[in-house]
Amino acid sequence: MRIKFIVPIITREPLDRLKEGLLPYVSPGTKLEVESIRYGTESNESFFDEAVNSIGVLELAEKAQNEGFDGVFIECMLDLGLEAAREKLYIPVVGPGRIAMLCAGDLADTFSVVTVLENSISPFKHLASSTGLRDRLVSVRSIEIPVVSLKDNARLLPTLLNESVLAIEEDGAHAIILGCTRMLGAEKKLTRLLAERGHIVPVISGIPLGLKYLEMLIHLNLSQSKLSYMTPPEKKVDFREGIHISGDVDVDESIL
Amino acid sequence: MRIKFIVPIITREPLDRLKEGLLPYVSPGTKLEVESIRYGTESNESFFDEAVNSIGVLELAEKAQNEGFDGVFIECMLDLGLEAAREKLYIPVVGPGRIAMLCAGDLADTFSVVTVLENSISPFKHLASSTGLRDRLVSVRSIEIPVVSLKDNARLLPTLLNESVLAIEEDGAHAIILGCTRMLGAEKKLTRLLAERGHIVPVISGIPLGLKYLEMLIHLNLSQSKLSYMTPPEKKVDFREGIHISGDVDVDESIL
Amino acid sequence: MRIKFIVPIITREPLDRLKEGLLPYVSPGTKLEVESIRYGTESNESFFDEAVNSIGVLELAEKAQNEGFDGVFIECMLDLGLEAAREKLYIPVVGPGRIAMLCAGDLADTFSVVTVLENSISPFKHLASSTGLRDRLVSVRSIEIPVVSLKDNARLLPTLLNESVLAIEEDGAHAIILGCTRMLGAEKKLTRLLAERGHIVPVISGIPLGLKYLEMLIHLNLSQSKLSYMTPPEKKVDFREGIHISGDVDVDESIL
Amino acid sequence: MRIKFIVPIITREPLDRLKEGLLPYVSPGTKLEVESIRYGTESNESFFDEAVNSIGVLELAEKAQNEGFDGVFIECMLDLGLEAAREKLYIPVVGPGRIAMLCAGDLADTFSVVTVLENSISPFKHLASSTGLRDRLVSVRSIEIPVVSLKDNARLLPTLLNESVLAIEEDGAHAIILGCTRMLGAEKKLTRLLAERGHIVPVISGIPLGLKYLEMLIHLNLSQSKLSYMTPPEKKVDFREGIHISGDVDVDESIL
Amino acid sequence: MRIKFIVPIITREPLDRLKEGLLPYVSPGTKLEVESIRYGTESNESFFDEAVNSIGVLELAEKAQNEGFDGVFIECMLDLGLEAAREKLYIPVVGPGRIAMLCAGDLADTFSVVTVLENSISPFKHLASSTGLRDRLVSVRSIEIPVVSLKDNARLLPTLLNESVLAIEEDGAHAIILGCTRMLGAEKKLTRLLAERGHIVPVISGIPLGLKYLEMLIHLNLSQSKLSYMTPPEKKVDFREGIHISGDVDVDESIL
Amino acid sequence: MRIKFIVPIITREPLDRLKEGLLPYVSPGTKLEVESIRYGTESNESFFDEAVNSIGVLELAEKAQNEGFDGVFIECMLDLGLEAAREKLYIPVVGPGRIAMLCAGDLADTFSVVTVLENSISPFKHLASSTGLRDRLVSVRSIEIPVVSLKDNARLLPTLLNESVLAIEEDGAHAIILGCTRMLGAEKKLTRLLAERGHIVPVISGIPLGLKYLEMLIHLNLSQSKLSYMTPPEKKVDFREGIHISGDVDVDESIL
ipTM of the predicted structure? Predict the structure, then answer.
């Protein structure tokens, strides 16, 4: 089984090392190939990032199918580019966000997402709506640490714990979804810390769940419905020119 | 990994042979133990069957946890006894009905269940409501072959195909869920026959999906939330006497 | 008019005395017969209790119809066994939980259930979902007094009042449903105490409402739809052996 | 127990005779007083009729409370003026439309309304939405006989039967609500005729159900929540002048 | 373009001066005619007011169409009489409440209504339900200043600001709808004051939005669907007699 | 007032001529600037097209704000790039799809979209879900004419009429939304042809409605909520390299 693992950001991190860290989460026979998009932004935290990086995901997803991969994994809890890639491909395409919500919806009555920045709150609510489980998502909380600062951040676990406890005690969450794939590894400690506080709840981490789910789909010969994700009509596409999107932020001074 | 596979009906079928047929659907390291309930009805097709057979499921589920199993699978698309067993146990309990709907909800916009008898239609609608995906379930259709007559029934595949085509073309289904675990094996042929008619849709079979999903939960150390499925308070239970439930049907002549 | 009043727990309380207390809530011509199940648990506070005690309800309900009763009342706000009994019977079967929610939904925009233990919270949410009024149920609160300790409990009214006031002022409830039939009698005092605090809201008690509603259905010749609650197919049922369900609680030490 | 029965149309029918026909539907001790509004339209079949006749209902409802009645019944399946009257009064006010839907929602998974004219279809859908059971109402069908022609109309039962069969077989209804109180009496025959066709479903008639329900509320000391139906602030009201609303229909010729 | 602006209360205010204040909100070519109803109550704050004043709205709306107006505007955020008037007329009829919610639903994920008295809270929730956006309305808050005291009230802006900040920070509102048309003019200052507190959100005022929307409909030849708002059947209407509705408030002493 | 009109496809059509055709739909003082994206696909008919063309929309939208435009219009009924552009900009951004649904939801109980190809059906259902009006959208029908063949296509009006009549008579639509902005101009004839068949319903065309709505927002100083559409965090963006997305369609031969 060959799985293409798409990193939907521009990154300088050594992908070989990233791949090594993923191996515990796939079955012995699975071959994983990791590739990042060549253009776009350095993290995914907003509708804007989703729009900018989706096209790179499509490029890699299409290539993966042409090269004979059995499935495609998009490493972002916002499932960016998922629907477009599912249309273009016949092999299964999985994003961890949607399946995390569906699994939480199975194991618990209600769930919260604890994510990186408040910019991701609206995108997560939209994801829950399109998944059909908007009523079960009782809150989206943010730890206010940007994705690029997550790695080896000593504040990660304490803030995750704090927001998770608030999600459970204030918002009524019965399960916690980690809102960024790069929180990978925190799920075990967070589960234990919550249990020590009397809250025995599932803590769902996107990469482990998503990779296992994709393996399961491939194993069972299941893929996205081509009635829901119809193959796009053949048409002219032109992308020769470069693109000029800025990462700067304009502030409307006049309104203040 | 040890999984307890509960057959929630009274049956005379050789369970060893049943177990043999299940082995292709579990991973190499998984040990499967199959056991049927000792009392109840011979099939599950109604709320009545669910109520009658749930208690036997609880008995076996509790025993399984005491014997050190890692997870429990309840072999019935109606997920009978699921919620009660999840309360009583801390190891993960999976019924294939709910997860089949969640997986269909991931892979497709809409889905239909094609089940055995029209008696199961209301129970499946209730299952979809409690799963939160009632809006996505566009129809429940029945082939009108009782569970006990499914085996080696030459009519199974043609009627399944016929109802599935109607579900897609008349009701707008984009995925098909087989409504009885004992339709096991029909998913591959049905997928091909539907594709030949131009409908490339996932056909979901409960046992393969449910067993793989349970393995995934065990592998990831995930289990039901004890906030949603709280441990029941200790209390007096008395079950020494026998029970007298009839399988007969009373007809109200006066109304006609 | 003959009504069978099923007490869905094992109990040693003198049923004659219970019956006497119910007489003010039925019309002069109504004959009430009270019977408790012979096996099961001593109270209903969880999905587990529902699953264990449903079969005893079915046994009594079936007997009642055979003996010519006009209707069956199941004395539990969780409506345990209701759907199965409605399938098996053609005479009307009423549980007080669902009708309490429907009546609250008529008299008020929103309502809360104030129940015994937090174990009942999830079951009540499920009941509201299947009733179709999940959006109107703004909270389920518990007084943390087990059913078996309710009787003559001096703490009952003060805690009921406290939680009801919180339901109204914090959660936005416009009506209160007493979450256990054995809170019978508290509705009048609670109504007055809430009114004294400026909250003129309906307080709904399950037994009075449910019995009157069942009388109304019988009087109007209304019963459950046999399209929603189809008569179960005739089939083999075997219940000769005893059942071994424990009331003990296993604790997963390993998770802590 | 004294109940005010408001006939929310201008009518020349002898109200004594109407009252006589209602007596079988109230309990022995109940005193019924029947009164029609003094101004408005001769039937209720649209939002327009609701708006025009509500004020007359308010006038009579307010008078009833002042005269010491215990409850008010508004004889119209569209529940016209119900919410305003509930605000103004503290005694319970019942309209048969909403409770018919709630009762149908208890006894069946789905229901249809079979009403007089297609003009009432939108108002019934709005009523279902405000009741919270819009998803359960699978269709509103009309027999195209105006209210004023219902009495002794030989076509009533055959067309009711025809539309009810279509509601069940085409739309999936599991219960039938008669969409006009003046179809009173048809429920028994229709129930039998549907049963003869194999459809054992509840047929709900507004006056019997509504009157019994109102008696039940009065008996149980239940009334509308004053948090949902707050007493209107005291203010200046002026109604000395007459009103000029026409019953004529303007047709926009220009659009054709 | 000629627009009829209906003031749905009895009022002594000089309508010419009111009209003058409205002119900035209509396009140069638009002719506005302002008329108040001749009977009814002096403000709209409850279901009761809606029921009482709707008939006056119908009278003026019908007259407007007969006189050749191109559209009708009803000046009340509760959209009183809207549905009935839309049935009777073929020219577009607009109430500001519904369109304010739809516009808020476009510009923001969630919104709150900040209204005059708590009596209006339930009517606004009903309006949101019938608009289909009940889930997006996170709260209805009141400033507890009656409509008749709004004008030149120094407390208006501070209390509006206070409740709006609570709506945003406590309830999660992303847009604010002013709950009374007579708060006209406060939207600009409130927008600025909220922005100064870091909340850049749309503040929607009913008259400006509603008038512009009506102009847009007229310009585009759009009007209400005559399938949703069918022309009422011709029938006898009688309104010669006066009506006796009191503005007094009865208090039920017995309950306390 | 200066509006940027973004054509979100690569096109060779003379934009001056397109602009000329739009002038009747904007107010006298409005200055319209029309610009197409420089890269992407030649039409928008799928999730794939949305993902590919969104980035070009962002580029132009950002430029428009920098150049001092007052608002941005995205010419596509699928509202592609809308959410991302709303995050990046503070001036109002309007896509015609969402507002068409909201307007249809105001004028009618139910509506259908009649679009170009069946590939657009799922995207339109997703748009309705995120708009919150999924329940009101009774069907999405396609005329099976690709966007690029719409112009001067003699089949357009007859097929539009045919599908609209089916939407009304079979699916229960009370309003019709034209599913492609390039059906511009068909709305008037279609309205008349439907009225001749007795169906007086609004027919909503995206460009006229969307442009007028955007003018209205600008006029009223309303824009998207910055709480729902938060300004994205500043971050590194790299787009120097070209992109390689094919317009070809891969077919999975193995499945057939």
Answer: 0.93
